[in-house]
Amino acid sequence: MLGDDLDYFLALAASRTFTSTAEKLGISQPALTKAIQRLERKVGVNLVMRTARGTELTEAGRAFYARVQTASRGLDEAIQEARDLGGGKAGLLRIGITPATTDFTLRALLPRLIEERPAAHISFTTAFAGSLMETVNRRDVEFAVCPVPERSNAALEYELLYEDPCRLMVNELHPLAGRDCVPLEELAEYEWAGTRKHEYTRAQIERAFTLRKLPLPRMVVEADTLAALILVVSQTRLVSMINLRSIQASALPDNVVVRPLSVEGMDRPIGIIRRAGYLSPIAVRAQELLREAAGQLT
């Protein structure tokens, strides 16, 4: 019924500029404008408005966009399910992972999954836990392997895989590098490198400090990736945290050391998070491999 006009609207809503949308679609701007106008006539309301900063969706346009995205993903899932049922082991698998679960997930799934499903396409999306929750909610991935949040979302299903111990990470020249175990009270005296404010480990650290009525750690450097934090610790005397299963010890720089913490409740629960509903055969198999790998952790 709406045909290409609807696809053009989805592309415009994502990019928010007529110029870049027309270029990506390979059509002229006047043709794109006419397509949007035709769609607005069919729907009966204005969906977009031009502003000095580009293109904005109207209130009706935002509601329409959200509904169409959901319908579009539902159609994609229906097509994928039909292909799975008719095509055996082929399929598309989209998995969300955090920097801390990347190593575990890749080792658990590869190369077995691609050997078992040679016609499949596997896509990994890496982000911190908060962003991945939204990604799962939007059905942009079939499931995510990430920290299990304390507050659950009724629309999502959670399955615990393993507990990931949290450890202190410092440069070998740092005063704490030679300690067997470090109390939290002592960590309050040092400057830190950490993730962004609302990322899981950062929130976990600050909660522990608050519960013990300690001043929050002074974050001198913030970084969005584990690799960046490791490099910062390697180059400075800043204190940071690392989860034990997030990286192989051999992958750390020679001058970075990891030490235990004498703090309870700092271990991080890692699990599979997914929306209820259809899971493709390859997604089901991937989760079986993850459970198997988690059961072998010591």
What features would you describe in this structure?
The protein has 298 residues and is an alpha/beta fold. It folds into three domains: 3-68, Arc Repressor Mutant, subunit A, CATH 1.10.10; 88-162 and 269-295, 3-Layer(aba) Sandwich (D-Maltodextrin-Binding Protein, domain 2); 166-266, D-Maltodextrin-Binding Protein, domain 2. It has eleven helices and twelve strands. A hairpin with a 2-residue loop joins strand 1 (48-51) and strand 2. Helix 1 crosses helix 2 (18-25) and helix 1 (3-15) crosses helix 3 (29-43). The longest helix is centred in the first third of the chain and has 29 residues, at 59-87. The model has no long low-confidence stretch (mean pLDDT 87).
Mean pLDDT: 87
Q: What would CATH call the architecture of the largest domain?
A: 3-Layer(aba) Sandwich
- Low-confidence runs (pLDDT<50, min 5 residues)? none
Total number of β-strand segments?
12
Q: Which percent bin holds the helix content? A: 40-55%
Structural Rg = 24 Å
> What is the SS-derived class?
alpha/beta
Number of domain modules:
3
CATH fold-type name of the largest domain: D-Maltodextrin-Binding Protein, domain 2
CATH class of the largest domain: Alpha Beta
SSE order, one letter for each helix or strand: HHHEEHEHHEHEEEHEHEHEEEH
- Shape type: globular
Main sheet: which strands, in order across? 4-3-5-12-6
- What percentage of the residues does DSSP assign to strands (E)? 15-25%
Figure out the total of helices.
11
